[in-house]
Amino acid sequence: LNSMVSGTLVEGTVQADNDIRIDGTLKGTLICKGKVIIGPKGQIEGEIKAQNAVIEGMFKGIITIEDLLHVKESAHVEGEINTDKLS
Q1: CA distance 17 to 71
Q2: C-alpha count within 13 angstroms, C-beta hemisphere, residue 75
Q3: Do 55 and 72 form a contact (C-beta atoms < 8 A)?
Q4: pTM of whole model > 0.90?
Q5: Can you count the helices (H) and strands (E) in the chain?
Q6: What is the C-alpha separation between 30 and 11, in angstroms, rounded?
Q7: Residue 75: what are its φ and ψ, rounded to 5°?
Q8: 13-64 confidence digits (pLDDT tens)
């Protein structure tokens, strides 16, 4: 599991072969072959491409999930969602 902790800001493209948890801020593109977890304090602005995802924090942009996207009640999502299954 890869992790980006709270207080961290990354701008650009992040690629991960395994699961990744974001509790900081990412502005750019995230490409993940596993699961993306945006924690309650996590923020992503840009684009996500992944197998699965769980959003508890903030996402703004375009998200493309091949299998299951789980949006928790604490989540704030703005933008375009492309997924096979939505929970």
Answers
A1: 22
A2: 19
A3: yes
A4: yes
A5: 0, 9
A6: 10
A7: -75, 150
A8: 999 999 999 999 999 999 999 999 999 999 999 999 999 999 999 999 999 9
Distance in angstroms (rounded) separating the CA atoms of residues 20 and 22: 7
Q: Checking DSSP bridges between strand 52-55 and strand 58-71, what pairing results, if any? A: parallel
Q: For residues 26 and 42, give the distance between their C-alpha atoms in angstroms, rounded to a whole number.
A: 8
Residue type, 15: Q
Give me the amino acid identity at 6.
S
Q: What is the Cα–Cα distance from 40 to 75, expressed in whole angstroms? A: 7
Question: What residue type is assigned to position 26 of the chain?
Answer: L
Read off the amino acid at residue 14. V
